[in-house]
Amino acid sequence: MQMSKIMQSIRRFARRTDGASGIEYAIVAAMVAVVIAGFMGDMNNGLNNVFNQLKTALPAASTSTGGNSGGTSGGTSGGTGG
């Protein structure tokens, strides 16, 4: 008797389709998340490379000697004056 109730419950569960579209959306969302995570890893490496290059270039630029830091303080501001 108990076994037939279990089998009926299993058959009823197998026939139900009301949650199928929700599961399909969850699977698609999971696949999109996996693809995005894969690209984020590549993008993360690229950004790290850019910032590492900047980090090594900035101290060299700030400690460079030579060049003239002066300039002229005079001059005219554009326009026709009229």
Automatic annotation (TrEMBL):
<dbReference type="InterPro" id="IPR007047">
    <property type="entry name" value="Flp_Fap"/>
</dbReference>
<protein>
    <submittedName>
        <fullName>Pilus assembly protein Flp/PilA</fullName>
    </submittedName>
</protein>
<keyword id="KW-0472">Membrane</keyword>
<feature type="region of interest" description="Disordered">
    <location>
        <begin position="60"/>
        <end position="82"/>
    </location>
</feature>
<feature type="compositionally biased region" description="Gly residues">
    <location>
        <begin position="67"/>
        <end position="82"/>
    </location>
</feature>
<dbReference type="Pfam" id="PF04964">
    <property type="entry name" value="Flp_Fap"/>
</dbReference>
<keyword id="KW-0812">Transmembrane</keyword>
<keyword id="KW-1133">Transmembrane helix</keyword>
<feature type="transmembrane region" description="Helical">
    <location>
        <begin position="21"/>
        <end position="41"/>
    </location>
</feature>
